[in-house]
Structures are given as structure tokens and as C-alpha cells.
């Protein structure tokens, strides 16, 4: 039996904490306005997996449900992403150690749920996260943003700040439902806010090899997105479902599980794709 939830991490980043100066930072947003597709699980395991390679990683929990924060075993914090949006805290106050080498977190809070209303009349409200991340690009090699299951202001901010997108898609009948709206939103952001935004990888999740439906969905998605679809697929795996309740990524909770192996393979794909774009 894997160990119970570790002692909650959450020590704020001190001024003395030696973060590496990054030569080239990649900001990736994990997006899908449809809930229950494995978005947060992907963000957490991608971040943790990249950190195990020795790269410095900052995971940003931009979802008011706070699942990425709790999924790393980080307790409720005094300062969160909401305070950065409100300019009531500095990055040093908000960036939190996770108790894992090379992996830091900007936690979320339920207060983020009111951002759309709170900033309704704010000028340049779509670029707030981009401005926050600008100085942080020099300190991390990867910044991963977990977004809420909506196309509201938080997601638009993530799209505007990102270099690339990771789109998890569940291998079920309604996998492509709403995808047209997501693609339209991405295109609008490209036209008006972030012309360099690209889809890095579409990741098939909750893949059940016992069903023909999974094969059909995979076929349709690969036909639609072509080479953007990751070769790795994430299987239905009980360990993936269990790990958040222990405050751990599945690659840490049960490294020998099929889910952990799949996510580590996906991490390799993302790193290789990033390297191919560096030239």
C-alpha cells in the first residue's frame, strides 16, 4: 500500500532560495472547457514529471476548485494566485515549495471564482497573467498553467500568456463536444492577443483498451488533429484516480502503475517537442 498523504508542503519561497536562471522558459497551458477529462491530473503529473528530469518547473493552479494545489499535498495558503491578480502580494510571497526537488507552485483559492465579475471593467484584463509571468520566465524552465473547465477570464489569461497548449481529451462519446468552441476561442486569442499560440499536444485520457469506443474516438481525434495528437495515451487506471486523495502525482504515488508509466512517456514527448522547437 502506498504511503498516506505526506505532511502538507507549503513553505513560501524565501529570498535565499536559489532558483536557476532559465535560458529558455516554456509556458504551457493545460486547457479544455469540458470538465472531467483529466486536465488537472495531466497538469500535476506533467509538472512533476518534468521536475524529475532536473528541469525547474512552476505549476500555476488557476482553477478555483484548487485541485492542482491539493493534488500536490499543499495546504491552504495565505497568499494565492488571486492575490497576484489583485496586486496584493509579490511572486516571492505566493510561490510555494512543494517538498519536491525542482517543483514549485502558485496555489489557487476559491476567490478566483469571482475574477470575471471583479475584473469586468479592468483595462487589459486578458493580459494580467502574462504580465505576472514575464519576470518569472527568467527563473524557470517550464511554467505549467492548470485552467478551469470554462472559457472565462482565467482561461483567456492562460491562453494569452502561453507559448503552447496541452489539450486533454477523454476517450468517450462526447470527447469532441465543445471542441469547436475551444478551437474558435484559441483562434480569436491568436488574432487579437497572442499570435504565437500553438497547440503542442492533444492527449487522449481515460483510454479503455477493452472498448471499441476508445479506438473510434482515438481514430476521430487523430484524423482531426493529425500529428498534434500525442503517441502516448493515458489509460483508465485506478491509481490515477487514487493519487490526488494522497496529495501526490501518480508518478510518485505508484511509480510502477500503468498510469505512471504513461504520464512519464508523455513527459518525454513534451520535452522532445520543446527541444524540436528550440532550433
What does this structure look like?
This protein has one domain: Rossmann fold (3-Layer(aba) Sandwich), CATH 3.40.50.300. The protein is α/β, with parallel strands linked by helices and 279 residues long. α9 (212-225) links the parallel β7 and β8 (229-235). The chain is built from twelve helices and eight strands. It has helices at residues 39-52, 67-71, 81-85, 91-94, 115-118, 128-133, 153-161, 179-192, 212-225, 238-242, 250-253, 258-278, and strands at 26-30, 57-61, 96-100, 103-106, 142-146, 164-170, 198-207, 229-235.
Number of helices: 12
Radius of gyration: 18 Å
Relevant CATH superfamily: P-loop containing nucleotide triphosphate hydrolases
C-alpha termini separation: 45 Å
Would you tell me the structural class of the helices and strands? Answer: alpha/beta
Order of helices and strands: EHEHHHEEHHEHEHEHEHHH
Biggest sheet strand order reads 3-4-2-5-1-6-7-8
Keywords:
single chain; 279 residues; alpha/beta; Rossmann fold; eight-stranded mixed sheet; 12 helices; disordered N terminus
Topology, element by element:
Elements: E1 26-30, H1 39-52, E2 57-61, H2 67-71, H3 81-85, H4 91-94, E3 96-100, E4 103-106, H5 115-118, H6 128-133, E5 142-146, H7 153-161, E6 164-170, H8 179-192, E7 198-207, H9 212-225, E8 229-235, H10 238-242, H11 250-253, H12 258-278
Parallel strand pairs: 1-5, 1-6, 2-4, 2-5, 6-7, 7-8
Antiparallel strand pairs: 3-4
Summarize this structure briefly.
The chain is 38% helix and 17% strand. The chain has helices at residues 39-52, 67-71, 81-85, 91-94, 115-118, 128-133, 153-161, 179-192, 212-225, 238-242, 250-253, 258-278; strands spanning 26-30, 57-61, 96-100, 103-106, 142-146, 164-170, 198-207, 229-235.
Amino acid at each position: 500500500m502506498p504511503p498516506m498523504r505526506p505532511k502538507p508542503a507549503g513553505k513560501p519561497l524565501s529570498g535565499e532560495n536559489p532558483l536557476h536562471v532559465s535560458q529558455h522558459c516554456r509556458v504551457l497551458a493545460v486547457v479544455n472547457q469540458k470538465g472531467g477529462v483529466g486536465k488537472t491530473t495531466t497538469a500535476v503529473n506533467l509538472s512533476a514529471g518534468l521536475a524529475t528530469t532536473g528541469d525547474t518547473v512552476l505549476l500555476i493552479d488557476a482553477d478555483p476548485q484548487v485541485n492542482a494545489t491539493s493534488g500536490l499535498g499543499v495546504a491552504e495558503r495565505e497568499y494565492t494566485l488571486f492575490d497576484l491578480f489583485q496586486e496584493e502580494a509579490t511572486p516571492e510571497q505566493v510561490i510555494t515549495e512543494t517538498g519536491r526537488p525542482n517543483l514549485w507552485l502558485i496555489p489557487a483559492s476559491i476567490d478566483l471564482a469571482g475574477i470575471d465579475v471583479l475584473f469586468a471593467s479592468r483595462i487589459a484584463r486578458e493580459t494580467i497573467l502574462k504580465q505576472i509571468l514575464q519576470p518569472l520566465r527568467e527563473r524557470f524552465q517550464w511554467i505549467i498553467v492548470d485552467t478551469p473547465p470554462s472559457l472565462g477570464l482565467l482561461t483567456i489569461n492562460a491562453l494569452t500568456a502561453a507559448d503552447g497548449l496541452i489539450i486533454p481529451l477523454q476517450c468517450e462519446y462526447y470527447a469532441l463536444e465543445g471542441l469547436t468552441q475551444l478551437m474558435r476561442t484559441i483562434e480569436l486569442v491568436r488574432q487579437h492577443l497572442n499570435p504565437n499560440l500553438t497547440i503542442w499536444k492533444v492527449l487522449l485520457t481515460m483510454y479503455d483498451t477493452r472498448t471499441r469506443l476508445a479506438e473510434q474516438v482515438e481514430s476521430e481525434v487523430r484524423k482531426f488533429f493529425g500529428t498534434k495528437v500525442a503517441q502516448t495515451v493515458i489509460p483508465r487506471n485506478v491509481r490515477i484516480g487514487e493519487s490526488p486523495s494522497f496529495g501526490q502525482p501518480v508518478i510518485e504515488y505508484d511509480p510502477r502503475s500503468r498510469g505512471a508509466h504513461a504520464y512519464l512517456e508523455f513527459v518525454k514527448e513534451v520535452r522532445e517537442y520543446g527541444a524540436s522547437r528550440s532550433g
